[in-house]
Write a structure and sequence with these properties.
Protein name: Hydrolase
Mean pLDDT: 93
Shape: globular
CATH topology of the largest domain: Nucleotidyltransferase, domain 5
Radius of gyration: 18 Å
GO molecular function: hydrolase activity
Helix content: 40-55%
Number of domains: 2
CATH class of the largest domain: Alpha Beta
Number of strands: 11
Structural class: alpha/beta
Low-confidence stretches: none
Distance between the termini: 13 Å
Keywords: Hydrolase
Organism: Phytohabitans aurantiacus
Length: about 300
């Protein structure tokens, strides 16, 4: 059976999926995530930091070994927000080619949104059309469609970018939260207008900020993807988790059993983005999905 390898390199994390296509969808062989914070400081400096590039190289070398071990016939690596913004993106491309053996594709926000949608809606049984939101480290993608994409946009709000731009104290002060909320609201309103988000029947949320909100709202004592995938979380629960996270220190967030250590310092901003999207779209609930752009990348190379 043909195996493919997909790599999603975002602002905060880099993820690997080695899978085979099956009659009911992708069959996972390896699914991994490492927090490398590639976008560290990019919003301020416009450049990828040397230490961030090195963290990413180390993770990629490990991924390359697993790809070889499992004899994947096709490999596609997609790089997103941080590398679109960086003036030294060429250094990143050279490093990836030397480490992985393939060129990274620095995709547009529109293509990122379409890949996320493809990964999210396969196997989803909820009322269409969908508003799919992928909250990343540097950007958030908004996509509306049913079986295919009708409209998509990417805006520069993400958990790392908003934390670095606004949430400087631990926990953040009220003025910082107000400034972040205003920034996020302006971007969300622009995105919802661009994709006609008001006509969507179901909000689907992707990536670690959303799935971690879901895990906390569900009261899980360990991170259980099978419980989180397609769980429907109410607005009230999202708002409660967000308020709690904005009032917590990073150390307090680290003590939450489902919290990935590499996410704790930026998680409050991610939850705030999700809450604001629900506020502005009027959605009463969000369906969390463990399948996202990584699955979309894999599907794109299975044929």
């Amino acid at each position: 059976m043909k195996r493919v390898a997909a790599i999603d390199c975002g602002t905060n994390s880099i993820r690997l999926l080695i899978a085979s296509p099956g009659p009911d969808g992708l069959v996972d062989i390896v699914r991994r995530m490492e927090i490398v914070r590639l976008g560290q400081g990019v919003d301020r400096t416009g450049r990828l930091a040397p230490e961030a590039l090195e963290r990413t190289r180390v993770a990629l070398a490990s991924y390359a070994a697993q790809i070889a071990e499992h004899e994947a016939s096709r490999v596609r690596m997609v790089a997103t927000s941080a590398t679109r913004d960086a003036s030294n993106a060429d250094e990143f491309r050279v490093m990836v080619k030397e480490t992985l053996g393939v060129e990274p594709e620095v995709v547009t926000g529109d293509e990122e949104a379409r890949l996320s949608f493809t990964g999210a809606v396969r196997g989803l049984s909820a009322e269409a059309p969908y508003l799919v939101v992928d909250i990343g480290g540097g950007s958030t993608e908004f996509v509306v469609g049913a079986s295919t994409v009708d409209s998509a946009i990417s805006v520069d709000i993400g958990c790392v970018r908003m934390t670095e731009r606004h949430l400087h104290t631990d926990p953040p002060g009220s003025a910082e939260v107000t400034a972040a909320t205003a920034d996020i609201t302006a971007a969300v309103d622009r995105a919802l207008a661009a994709v006609d988000g008001g006509r969507a029947a179901t909000l689907v949320g992707l990536a670690g900020s959303v799935t971690t909100v879901a895990a906390i709202a569900l009261g899980l004592t360990s991170y259980q993807p099978e419980r989180i995938h397609h769980a429907r979380i109410s607005y009230d629960d999202v708002a409660a988790v967000t308020a709690r996270m904005l009032e917590s220190t990073t150390e307090q967030r680290l003590a939450i059993p489902v919290m990935h250590p590499g996410r704790a310092d930026v998680f409050a901003a991610g939850a705030l983005i999700l809450r604001t999207i629900m506020d502005r779209s009027g959605m009463s609930s969000v369906v969390a999905s463990e399948h996202d752009i990584l699955d979309g990348i894999a599907w794109s190379i299975t044929s």
